[in-house]
Protein backbone atom coordinates (compact mmCIF):
# COMPACT_ATOMS: atom_id res chain seq x y z
CA UNK A 1 0.00 0.00 0.00
CA UNK A 2 1.40 3.38 -0.76
CA UNK A 3 -0.18 6.69 -0.18
CA UNK A 4 1.70 9.76 -1.24
CA UNK A 5 1.52 12.69 1.08
CA UNK A 6 3.17 16.05 0.78
CA UNK A 7 2.98 16.69 4.50
CA UNK A 8 6.14 17.07 6.54
CA UNK A 9 4.56 14.77 9.11
CA UNK A 10 3.38 17.62 11.30
CA UNK A 11 6.66 17.77 13.08
CA UNK A 12 6.81 21.06 14.81
CA UNK A 13 6.14 24.29 13.08
CA UNK A 14 4.14 23.29 10.03
CA UNK A 15 1.20 25.49 10.90
CA UNK A 16 -1.31 26.15 8.17
CA UNK A 17 -1.15 29.88 7.64
CA UNK A 18 -4.74 29.96 6.43
CA UNK A 19 -5.91 29.09 9.94
CA UNK A 20 -6.73 31.94 12.21
CA UNK A 21 -4.05 32.67 14.72
CA UNK A 22 -6.10 33.18 17.85
CA UNK A 23 -3.65 30.96 19.70
CA UNK A 24 -0.17 31.74 20.90
CA UNK A 25 3.10 30.66 19.43
CA UNK A 26 3.98 27.93 21.91
CA UNK A 27 5.21 24.94 19.86
CA UNK A 28 2.33 22.81 21.10
CA UNK A 29 -0.17 25.46 20.05
CA UNK A 30 1.37 25.38 16.60
CA UNK A 31 1.04 21.60 16.49
CA UNK A 32 -2.60 21.86 17.45
CA UNK A 33 -3.08 24.31 14.60
CA UNK A 34 -1.55 21.71 12.30
CA UNK A 35 -3.49 18.75 13.70
CA UNK A 36 -6.79 20.53 13.38
CA UNK A 37 -10.13 18.84 13.78
CA UNK A 38 -10.34 18.59 9.98
CA UNK A 39 -6.93 16.96 9.74
CA UNK A 40 -7.69 14.42 12.46
CA UNK A 41 -10.94 13.73 10.62
CA UNK A 42 -9.02 13.29 7.37
CA UNK A 43 -6.67 10.77 9.02
CA UNK A 44 -9.60 8.91 10.56
CA UNK A 45 -11.41 8.89 7.20
CA UNK A 46 -8.30 7.52 5.48
CA UNK A 47 -7.99 4.71 8.03
CA UNK A 48 -11.71 3.90 7.90
CA UNK A 49 -11.39 3.22 4.16
CA UNK A 50 -8.87 0.48 5.00
CA UNK A 51 -10.38 -0.79 8.24
CA UNK A 52 -14.14 -0.97 8.41
CA UNK A 53 -14.47 -2.49 11.91
CA UNK A 54 -14.58 -0.03 14.78
CA UNK A 55 -11.87 -0.69 17.40
CA UNK A 56 -13.00 -0.67 21.04
CA UNK A 57 -9.61 -0.84 22.70
CA UNK A 58 -6.57 1.27 21.87
CA UNK A 59 -3.18 -0.04 22.96
CA UNK A 60 0.10 1.88 22.94
CA UNK A 61 3.10 -0.44 22.89
CA UNK A 62 6.15 0.74 24.82
CA UNK A 63 9.84 0.17 24.04
CA UNK A 64 10.38 -3.47 23.10
CA UNK A 65 6.71 -4.26 23.71
CA UNK A 66 5.48 -4.13 20.11
CA UNK A 67 5.15 -7.94 20.17
CA UNK A 68 1.77 -7.43 21.80
CA UNK A 69 0.39 -6.59 18.38
CA UNK A 70 1.48 -10.05 17.19
CA UNK A 71 -1.23 -11.59 19.41
CA UNK A 72 -3.86 -9.84 17.34
CA UNK A 73 -5.65 -12.07 14.83
CA UNK A 74 -7.22 -11.14 11.46
CA UNK A 75 -4.71 -8.33 11.38
CA UNK A 76 -4.74 -5.25 9.21
CA UNK A 77 -1.41 -3.44 9.43
CA UNK A 78 -1.36 0.21 8.44
CA UNK A 79 2.20 1.64 8.38
CA UNK A 80 2.47 5.17 9.75
CA UNK A 81 4.27 6.03 6.51
CA UNK A 82 1.04 5.38 4.60
CA UNK A 83 -1.16 7.60 6.75
CA UNK A 84 -1.38 11.24 5.70
CA UNK A 85 0.24 13.65 8.17
CA UNK A 86 1.32 10.86 10.55
CA UNK A 87 4.74 11.12 12.26
CA UNK A 88 7.24 8.21 12.32
CA UNK A 89 8.83 6.42 15.27
CA UNK A 90 12.58 6.84 15.15
CA UNK A 91 13.56 4.88 18.27
CA UNK A 92 14.99 1.34 18.40
CA UNK A 93 12.32 -0.99 19.79
CA UNK A 94 9.47 1.00 18.22
CA UNK A 95 8.04 0.00 14.87
CA UNK A 96 5.79 2.39 12.96
CA UNK A 97 2.46 0.63 12.44
CA UNK A 98 -1.12 0.81 13.51
CA UNK A 99 -2.22 -2.79 13.90
CA UNK A 100 -5.95 -3.52 13.82
CA UNK A 101 -7.58 -6.84 14.60
CA UNK A 102 -9.10 -9.13 17.14
CA UNK A 103 -7.66 -9.59 20.62
CA UNK A 104 -9.46 -12.07 22.86
CA UNK A 105 -12.82 -11.29 21.32
CA UNK A 106 -12.61 -7.52 20.98
CA UNK A 107 -11.55 -5.38 18.05
CA UNK A 108 -8.43 -3.39 18.96
CA UNK A 109 -5.98 -0.93 17.48
CA UNK A 110 -2.34 -1.11 18.60
CA UNK A 111 0.19 1.64 18.14
CA UNK A 112 3.26 -0.44 17.40
CA UNK A 113 5.64 2.42 18.09
CA UNK A 114 5.04 5.71 19.84
CA UNK A 115 6.49 9.20 19.57
CA UNK A 116 8.63 10.89 22.20
CA UNK A 117 9.41 14.57 22.73
CA UNK A 118 13.16 13.83 22.57
CA UNK A 119 12.71 12.72 18.94
CA UNK A 120 11.97 16.35 18.19
CA UNK A 121 8.18 16.13 18.32
CA UNK A 122 6.10 18.39 20.53
CA UNK A 123 4.13 16.67 23.29
CA UNK A 124 1.00 17.51 21.27
CA UNK A 125 2.34 15.66 18.22
CA UNK A 126 3.41 12.73 20.40
CA UNK A 127 -0.09 12.44 21.83
CA UNK A 128 -2.36 13.31 18.89
CA UNK A 129 -2.82 9.65 17.75
CA UNK A 130 -4.80 9.20 20.98
CA UNK A 131 -7.45 11.50 19.47
CA UNK A 132 -7.34 9.55 16.22
CA UNK A 133 -7.94 6.26 18.05
CA UNK A 134 -10.77 7.82 20.05
CA UNK A 135 -12.40 9.17 16.92
CA UNK A 136 -12.10 5.70 15.38
CA UNK A 137 -14.33 4.51 18.20
CA UNK A 138 -12.08 3.20 20.97
CA UNK A 139 -13.29 3.83 24.54
CA UNK A 140 -10.48 2.19 26.51
CA UNK A 141 -6.78 2.98 26.31
CA UNK A 142 -4.11 0.56 27.52
CA UNK A 143 -0.80 2.33 27.66
CA UNK A 144 2.43 0.40 28.22
CA UNK A 145 5.97 1.62 28.70
CA UNK A 146 9.44 0.65 29.77
CA UNK A 147 10.59 2.52 32.85
CA UNK A 148 13.41 2.78 35.33
CA UNK A 149 12.73 1.67 38.89
CA UNK A 150 12.89 4.68 41.18
CA UNK A 151 11.34 2.81 44.10
CA UNK A 152 14.16 0.93 45.83
CA UNK A 153 11.80 -1.98 46.53
CA UNK A 154 11.27 -2.66 42.82
CA UNK A 155 13.24 -5.26 40.87
CA UNK A 156 14.13 -5.41 37.21
CA UNK A 157 11.30 -7.24 35.42
CA UNK A 158 8.56 -6.05 37.78
CA UNK A 159 5.34 -4.79 36.22
CA UNK A 160 3.92 -1.64 37.80
CA UNK A 161 0.32 -0.57 37.53
CA UNK A 162 0.37 3.17 37.05
CA UNK A 163 -1.95 4.70 39.61
CA UNK A 164 -0.93 8.30 38.92
CA UNK A 165 1.81 10.32 37.31
CA UNK A 166 4.09 13.28 37.75
CA UNK A 167 4.03 15.11 34.43
CA UNK A 168 7.23 17.13 34.50
CA UNK A 169 6.88 18.76 31.07
CA UNK A 170 3.41 19.91 32.13
CA UNK A 171 4.80 21.36 35.36
CA UNK A 172 7.20 23.32 33.17
CA UNK A 173 4.34 24.69 31.04
CA UNK A 174 4.44 22.09 28.29
CA UNK A 175 1.07 20.38 27.98
CA UNK A 176 -0.29 18.75 24.78
CA UNK A 177 -3.57 20.62 25.27
CA UNK A 178 -1.95 24.03 24.93
CA UNK A 179 -3.63 25.89 22.10
CA UNK A 180 -7.17 26.19 20.85
CA UNK A 181 -9.62 23.89 22.68
CA UNK A 182 -11.64 22.77 19.68
CA UNK A 183 -15.19 21.93 20.70
CA UNK A 184 -16.05 20.41 17.35
CA UNK A 185 -14.97 17.03 18.70
CA UNK A 186 -18.63 16.61 19.58
CA UNK A 187 -18.28 12.96 20.60
CA UNK A 188 -15.68 13.93 23.15
CA UNK A 189 -15.48 17.70 23.58
CA UNK A 190 -12.91 17.90 26.36
CA UNK A 191 -13.17 20.98 28.55
CA UNK A 192 -10.65 23.82 28.50
CA UNK A 193 -9.56 22.84 32.03
CA UNK A 194 -9.80 19.05 32.17
CA UNK A 195 -9.53 17.23 35.47
CA UNK A 196 -6.83 14.51 35.49
CA UNK A 197 -7.03 13.36 39.10
CA UNK A 198 -8.58 10.08 37.94
CA UNK A 199 -6.82 9.77 34.62
CA UNK A 200 -5.97 6.14 35.46
CA UNK A 201 -9.24 4.28 35.88
CA UNK A 202 -9.55 2.90 39.41
CA UNK A 203 -11.88 0.04 38.46
CA UNK A 204 -9.49 -1.05 35.70
CA UNK A 205 -6.61 -0.97 38.13
CA UNK A 206 -8.44 -3.24 40.56
CA UNK A 207 -9.47 -5.57 37.76
CA UNK A 208 -5.91 -5.87 36.50
CA UNK A 209 -4.83 -6.87 40.00
CA UNK A 210 -7.36 -9.73 39.90
CA UNK A 211 -6.15 -10.79 36.46
CA UNK A 212 -2.54 -10.80 37.71
CA UNK A 213 -3.48 -12.87 40.75
CA UNK A 214 -4.93 -15.55 38.47
CA UNK A 215 -1.59 -15.65 36.65
CA UNK A 216 0.37 -15.66 39.91
CA UNK A 217 2.00 -12.40 38.90
CA UNK A 218 2.74 -9.98 41.69
CA UNK A 219 2.09 -6.52 40.36
CA UNK A 220 3.58 -3.36 41.75
CA UNK A 221 1.58 -0.18 41.89
CA UNK A 222 2.92 3.34 41.83
CA UNK A 223 3.50 6.77 40.42
CA UNK A 224 5.12 7.13 36.99
CA UNK A 225 7.34 10.16 36.47
CA UNK A 226 7.34 11.45 32.90
CA UNK A 227 10.52 13.35 32.03
CA UNK A 228 11.65 14.81 28.73
CA UNK A 229 14.74 12.69 28.02
CA UNK A 230 16.74 11.66 26.11
CA UNK A 231 19.30 11.62 28.95
CA UNK A 232 18.70 9.10 31.63
CA UNK A 233 18.52 10.76 35.03
CA UNK A 234 21.27 11.99 37.27
CA UNK A 235 21.57 10.57 40.78
CA UNK A 236 20.32 13.89 42.18
CA UNK A 237 17.27 13.75 39.90
CA UNK A 238 16.44 10.20 40.99
CA UNK A 239 16.75 11.24 44.62
CA UNK A 240 14.40 14.14 43.92
CA UNK A 241 11.86 11.82 42.26
CA UNK A 242 11.91 9.57 45.33
CA UNK A 243 11.27 12.53 47.62
CA UNK A 244 8.36 13.57 45.38
CA UNK A 245 6.76 10.13 45.62
CA UNK A 246 7.79 8.76 42.23
CA UNK A 247 8.16 5.00 41.77
CA UNK A 248 9.15 4.66 38.11
CA UNK A 249 10.58 6.99 35.50
CA UNK A 250 10.32 7.22 31.74
CA UNK A 251 10.11 9.61 28.81
CA UNK A 252 6.61 8.94 27.50
CA UNK A 253 3.05 8.16 28.60
CA UNK A 254 2.13 11.31 30.56
CA UNK A 255 1.22 13.44 27.51
CA UNK A 256 -0.72 10.52 25.99
CA UNK A 257 -2.69 9.97 29.19
CA UNK A 258 -3.36 13.71 29.46
CA UNK A 259 -4.97 13.73 26.01
CA UNK A 260 -6.78 10.48 26.80
CA UNK A 261 -8.34 12.06 29.89
CA UNK A 262 -9.36 15.07 27.82
CA UNK A 263 -11.17 12.98 25.22
CA UNK A 264 -12.90 10.64 27.63
CA UNK A 265 -10.86 7.46 27.43
CA UNK A 266 -10.84 5.07 30.36
CA UNK A 267 -7.15 4.33 30.80
CA UNK A 268 -5.08 1.49 32.18
CA UNK A 269 -1.33 2.11 32.46
CA UNK A 270 1.37 -0.53 32.83
CA UNK A 271 5.08 0.19 33.26
CA UNK A 272 7.64 -2.57 32.91
CA UNK A 273 10.64 -1.92 35.14
CA UNK A 274 13.59 -2.53 32.83
CA UNK A 275 16.39 -1.17 34.98
CA UNK A 276 17.21 0.16 38.39
CA UNK A 277 17.90 3.84 38.64
CA UNK A 278 21.18 5.24 39.87
CA UNK A 279 21.16 5.50 43.62
CA UNK A 280 24.54 6.54 44.83
CA UNK A 281 27.76 7.93 43.49
CA UNK A 282 29.64 4.65 43.98
CA UNK A 283 27.38 2.77 41.55
CA UNK A 284 29.09 2.17 38.25
CA UNK A 285 26.01 0.84 36.40
CA UNK A 286 24.32 3.30 34.05
CA UNK A 287 21.07 2.47 32.20
CA UNK A 288 21.42 1.72 28.49
CA UNK A 289 18.63 1.39 25.94
CA UNK A 290 19.89 -2.05 24.83
CA UNK A 291 19.18 -3.36 28.36
CA UNK A 292 15.76 -1.67 28.31
CA UNK A 293 14.84 -3.49 25.09
CA UNK A 294 16.34 -6.79 26.26
CA UNK A 295 14.34 -6.82 29.50
CA UNK A 296 11.15 -5.64 27.74
CA UNK A 297 11.40 -8.45 25.23
CA UNK A 298 12.17 -10.95 27.99
CA UNK A 299 9.09 -9.98 29.99
CA UNK A 300 6.82 -9.17 27.05
CA UNK A 301 4.98 -12.52 27.19
CA UNK A 302 3.91 -12.01 30.78
CA UNK A 303 2.65 -8.51 30.09
CA UNK A 304 0.89 -9.65 26.94
CA UNK A 305 -0.94 -12.42 28.82
CA UNK A 306 -2.20 -9.92 31.39
CA UNK A 307 -3.41 -7.54 28.71
CA UNK A 308 -5.02 -10.37 26.75
CA UNK A 309 -7.03 -11.44 29.81
CA UNK A 310 -7.86 -7.87 30.73
CA UNK A 311 -9.34 -7.32 27.27
CA UNK A 312 -11.44 -10.46 27.84
CA UNK A 313 -12.76 -8.86 31.02
CA UNK A 314 -13.71 -5.68 29.17
CA UNK A 315 -15.55 -7.79 26.61
CA UNK A 316 -17.57 -9.50 29.33
CA UNK A 317 -18.39 -6.27 31.15
CA UNK A 318 -19.23 -3.91 28.34
CA UNK A 319 -22.31 -1.84 28.93
O1 LIG B 1 8.39 4.88 27.33
P1 LIG B 1 8.84 3.95 26.29
O2 LIG B 1 8.48 4.38 24.92
O3 LIG B 1 8.39 2.53 26.56
O4 LIG B 1 10.46 3.92 26.30
C1 LIG B 1 11.33 4.16 27.39
O5 LIG B 1 12.57 3.62 26.98
C2 LIG B 1 13.37 4.63 26.35
C3 LIG B 1 14.67 4.76 27.07
O6 LIG B 1 15.37 3.56 27.12
C4 LIG B 1 12.58 5.92 26.45
O7 LIG B 1 11.91 6.17 25.25
C5 LIG B 1 11.64 5.64 27.58
O8 LIG B 1 10.49 6.44 27.56
Summary tags:
Nucleoside_phosphorylase_sf, alpha/beta, single chain, disordered N terminus, Purine_phosphorylase, 20% strand, Purine nucleoside phosphorylase, 8 helices, Rossmann fold, binds 1-O-phosphono-alpha-D-ribofuranose, globular, 319 residues
In short:
The protein has 319 residues and is an alpha/beta fold. Helix content is 31%, strand content 20%.
Helicity level: 25-40%
Gyration radius from CA atoms, angstroms: 19 Å
Figure out the total of helices. 8
CATH class: Alpha Beta
Percent strand? 15-25%
Full CATH superfamily name = Nucleoside phosphorylase domain
What is the domain total for the residues? 1
- Classify the fold: give the CATH topology: Rossmann fold
Bound molecules: 1-O-phosphono-alpha-D-ribofuranose
**Distance from first to last alpha carbon:** 37 Å
Which CATH-level-2 architecture? 3-Layer(aba) Sandwich
Q: Major β-sheet, in short?
A: 5 strands, mixed, barrel
What is the general shape? globular
- The total count of strands amounts to 9
Helix-strand pattern: HHEEEEHEEHHEHEHEH
Mean pLDDT: 91
- Order the strands across the largest sheet as they lie in space: 5-8-7-6-9
GO molecular function, one term: purine-nucleoside phosphorylase activity
Keywords: Glycosyltransferase, Transferase
Pathway: Purine metabolism; purine nucleoside salvage
Family: Belongs to the PNP/MTAP phosphorylase family.
How does this structure look, described?
- The chain has 319 residues and is α/β, with parallel strands linked by helices.
- It has a single domain (20-316), classed as Rossmann fold.
- The protein is built from eight helices and nine strands.
- The protein has helices at residues 27-34, 37-50, 123-135, 168-171, 202-214, 235-243, 254-262, 289-316; strands at 57-60, 73-79, 97-103, 106-112, 140-149, 159-167, 220-226, 248-250, 266-276.
- The model is unreliable at 1-21 (pLDDT under 50).
- Residues 62-63, 91, 114, 116, 145-146, 229, 250-252, 289, 292 line the site of 1-O-phosphono-alpha-D-ribofuranose.
- Pathway: Purine metabolism; purine nucleoside salvage.
Amino acid sequence: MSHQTNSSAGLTGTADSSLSSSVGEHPNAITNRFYTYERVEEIVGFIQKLVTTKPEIAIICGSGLGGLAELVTDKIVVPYADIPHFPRSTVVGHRSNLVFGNLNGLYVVCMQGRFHPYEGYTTATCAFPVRVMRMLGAHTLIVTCAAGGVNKGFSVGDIMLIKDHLNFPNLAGNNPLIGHNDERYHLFPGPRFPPVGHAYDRAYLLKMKEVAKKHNVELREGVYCGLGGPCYETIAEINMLRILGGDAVGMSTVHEVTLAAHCGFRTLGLALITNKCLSDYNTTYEPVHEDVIRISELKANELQQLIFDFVGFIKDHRT
